[in-house]
Write a structure and sequence with these properties.
By secondary structure, the chain is of the alpha/beta class. The chain contains ten helices and nine strands.
């Protein structure tokens, strides 16, 4: 593939359906190798976060590697996220630190990573005020053009509705855990209602789903890997995905999503696995 087809965010900004997740990519060499392999495989989007502690290495790798692949800064889409420790009054400082670490001029998409605040109980009643303060800071940087689009991650339907009632700039995107065992029906309805792009992380259920009998059978029938089937299940529903790997072969395999289609019966079989299973953070108790 040369590049993945884009989705259009509500800001008018095109974003690739496929991006490289960089969670757990640590150290200059590992980040450099993964970015090099991803660019060669056609990835044009990269997802980082303050808490991943790799923003500086990602920015440096892209600056060195983009010319090698005949690309410019404008050819790639960079996402990063505000750390929970910076939620609230430190949000402006946190976002500016991400901009400085990446050192790429601007960030295409910047998200509030978590609806709570580090060090505060999940039920702490200060959380709504901190979220609102963070969002106001992101809106300011968006107006300045430093953040081309802004959004949220790990928000529940209640958090989304709260934000929509108070924001001046609506979120462009919500990034949450999404896979056949967690179909997020209500959240997807809320996103559709508000014109917010719904993006998946942990598409393989932290590796648990690649051994699911249904996934294995579908993969065998269409002569694809279980990982490709799980990622295709999402992108076939116009849900962008962020598979993460440091293995060049796996990075390339994960990019082979756009030359096959799952039949309706297979899509339904996979969706029928939905049981509300979460493998990652659970924000449902955050006030």
């Amino acid at each position: 593939m040369s590049s993945s087809p884009p989705v259009l965010l509500n800001t008018g900004l095109p974003m690739p359906l496929l991006g490289l997740g960089t969670y757990k990519l640590v150290g200059r060499e590992e980040v450099y190798g993964a970015v090099d392999a991803a660019l060669a495989a056609g990835y044009r989007a990269f997802d980082s976060a303050a808490v991943y502690r790799n923003e500086a290495d990602l920015g440096r790798a892209l600056k060195e590697l983009l010319p090698k692949h005949g690309l410019t800064r404008e050819d790639v889409f960079i996402t990063s996220k505000l750390g929970p420790k910076d939620q609230g009054e430190k949000a402006m400082e946190g976002a500016l630190h991400s901009l400085s670490q990446l050192d790429l001029g601007y960030i295409d998409l910047y998200l509030i990573h978590w609806p709570g605040t580090q060090g505060q109980d999940v039920a702490d009643q200060r959380n709504p005020g901190n979220r609102a303060q963070s969002w106001a800071s992101l809106e300011e940087l968006h107006a300045q053009g430093k953040l081309k689009a802004i959004g949220v991650s790990n928000y529940t339907p209640a958090h989304m509705r709260e934000l929509m009632q108070s924001c001046k700039v609506p979120p462009a995107l919500l990034q949450v855990e999404f896979h056949p065992r967690l179909c997020q029906t209500e959240l997807r309805k809320v996103c559709k209602e508000y014109g917010v792009c719904f993006q998946a992380y942990s598409s393989l259920g932290k590796g648990e789903l690649v051994t699911d009998p249904v996934v294995l059978e579908v993969a065998k029938n269409c002569e694809r890997t279980p990982g490709q089937v799980l990622l295709r299940w999402a992108v076939q529903q116009d849900v962008p995905v962020l598979p993460k790997s440091s293995n060049p072969d796996r990075i390339q395999d994960n990019a082979r999503l756009f030359d096959f289609t799952l039949c309706d019966a297979d899509m339904e079989r996979l969706s029928a696995l939905d049981c509300g299973q979460k493998y990652c953070w659970d924000s449902s108790e955050v006030a």
